[in-house]
Amino acid sequence: MTRNRVRGRLPVVLVLPAVIGLAFLLVPLAGLLIRTPWASLSTSLSAEVGEALRLSLICASLATVLCLFLGIPLAWLLARSGLPGRGFLRALVTVPLVLPPVVGGVALLLVLGRRGLIGEHLDAWFGISLPFTTAGVVVAEAFVAMPFLVISVEGALRAADPRYEEAAATLGASRWLTFRRVTLPSVLPGVVAGAVLCWARALGEFGATITFAGNFPGETTTMPLAVYLALETDPDAAIVLSIVLLLVSVGVLAGLRDRWISGPT
Amino acid sequence: MTLKADLRVTRGTFTLDLGLTIAPGEVVALLGPNGAGKSTALRALAGLLPLTSGHITVGESTWDGADAFLPAEKRPIGVVFQDYLLFAHMSALENVAFGLRSRGTRRHEARAEAARWLGRVGLDGYAQTKPRSLSGGQAQRVALARALATGPSLLLLDEPLAALDASTRLQVRSELGRHLADFGGHTLLVTHDPLDAMVLADRLMILEGGRAVQTGPPAEVARQPRTDYVANLVGLNFYRGTAAGTEAGLDGGGTFTIPRPVDGPVHVVFPPNAVSLHAERPGGSPRNVWPVTVDGIEQHAHTTRVRLDGAPNVLADITTATLADLRLRPGDALWAAVKATEVHVYPA
């Protein structure tokens, strides 16, 4: 208030769009809450909802683990290796970010499908078939969500002072030990932030999942798919499913928020 | 096991070309202005930067050379970095134990040894403290313990006292001196602070523009500087000239009467407090006397330093009483006088 008196009124040109923007983000969520049939909420939480939720949480978590395993080393490679053409690689990594997820699903089908470039051999040699399975859901979610992790971790790595790694080297640490005991702990906030974004993205993933993994209740029907299907047959159920998904997402974000924004301890 | 190095590194337009020998137990200080190549030399010795050409050998083993390069993690070194670079997420004890653990010591042995080192640097009771809770002096001691704990053959100190405030510095410097005296390996101290170098080192190497311009024991370097940079560091008036008998003609103008007859190119030095200033031309005893004008006046702790233009330019330290007598102001014309016996002359 004091500052406003000193600096004058806030410019309407900025405030008005800001308020509209805020409303645009919050009103739909508020609408969801208002229209929720709270009274019949517990009866609407059928076994199918529980199953879809469980599947969603498991798949999103597995996808996040997969992304951590593959994404952190990839981020390290982009940030630290001095590899030629890193800029180009970085651009390629971000493609799934801007790619419509449905297109991603189609691409996954073409490569990992039963008659795909790699899928054919997976099926013939190992009897592994990913499409239309729970594993397929994890693959689709990881494909879409991994760039969030890579970008976040790479940013943290590039901001971290590489001289600490030099100090570790002068103390006799190999590059792997240095990565494990010095680099990774110092970028942990970035890793957590990336993992949260990655998990949230995987949890909400729809397009790639339905394209690559299909919609088989109990096996590949995750919450977003269940919401979409319920909307056509039973709108109230769709609202309940949405509310559950919203609560879970917000709950996890809130739970991780402190770790996410605070520095290393 | 003498360390012998011929460091040649080219980076862009800068070239480091430095021959270096360090005997076991010896502390060599690399002293020079910013950009002289001190850090480059240290990084090359640490194995963080490969040589363009030249070699580094310690006893029989080659660390860097035409067909061998030992990376940093394979060299028996300890480095104290300028801002210490303690690992923020580890306790002081874990920091000190890190090098031992990296080199394969078992966990409990490494921790016991690290605890001993913390005790040796006077940090008993700080084992579980995280670096951000340590004072500057404590962090410096943890860094020293971390560097020494692995029993390195070469200890590299990169401006180890630069990050400390003046009062801590004095104490940490004397402690560091004690640890260096106990250390049996080779020590290279990189600094731009002449006092650190003089107090801690057995031998100084002055580095300017990537080359060593002067090497010698601290006392000798302090008495007989060979470049303007060194003279400035040790606080002497310094001139190049050519002597014939007891007269020396200075390259920058002016002639000095010198105490002993010499012939040929010489360096002429005398301390600022050997200069006296007079409003009138002084007579009497044989002095070097020349007219000067005041260029600037700086107040130091107990003296006043006056910068004077003339042939030659000169720095004079005068007492506050003299300052009051002369009522000096920039632009004033004065006479500067230096006794011939105060002038130190040595071959260039």
TrEMBL record, chain A:
A Pfam family: BPD_transp_1
Chain segments annotated as transmembrane: 12-34, 54-79, 91-112, 124-153, 182-202, 237-256
UniProt subcellular location: Cell membrane
Bilayer topology: Multi-pass membrane protein
Alphabetic keyword roster: Cell membrane, Membrane, Molybdenum, Transmembrane, Transmembrane helix, Transport
Molecular function GO labels: molybdate ion transmembrane transporter activity
Residue ranges of domain ABC transmembrane type-1 in the record: 53-254
GO CC aspect terms: plasma membrane
CDD domains xrefs: TM_PBP2
Function: Part of the binding-protein-dependent transport system for molybdenum; probably responsible for the translocation of the substrate across the membrane.
Annotated family: Belongs to the binding-protein-dependent transport system permease family. CysTW subfamily.
Protein known as: Molybdenum transport system permease
Source organism per UniProt: Lentzea albidocapillata subsp. violacea
Lineage: Bacteria, Bacillati, Actinomycetota, Actinomycetes, Pseudonocardiales
From TrEMBL, chain B:
GO molecular function: ABC-type ferric iron transporter activity; ATP binding; ATP hydrolysis activity
Residue span(s) of domain Mop: 283-347
Keyword Protease included in the entry's annotation: no
Gene Ontology CC: one annotated term: membrane
Origin: domain of life: Bacteria
SMART domains found in the cross-reference section: AAA
SUPFAM superfamilies the record matches: MOP-like, P-loop containing nucleoside triphosphate hydrolases
Chain ranges of the ABC transporter domain: 1-234
GO BP annotations listed: molybdate ion transport
Keyword field: ATP-binding, Cell membrane, Ion transport, Iron, Iron transport, Membrane, Molybdenum, Nucleotide-binding, Transport
Claim: Kinase is one of the keywords in the record: no
PANTHER family to which the protein is assigned, alphabetical: SPERMIDINE/PUTRESCINE IMPORT ATP-BINDING PROTEIN POTA, SPERMIDINE_PUTRESCINE IMPORT ATP-BINDING PROTEIN POTA
The name this protein goes by in its record: Molybdate transport system ATP-binding protein
Organism listed in the record: Lentzea albidocapillata subsp. violacea
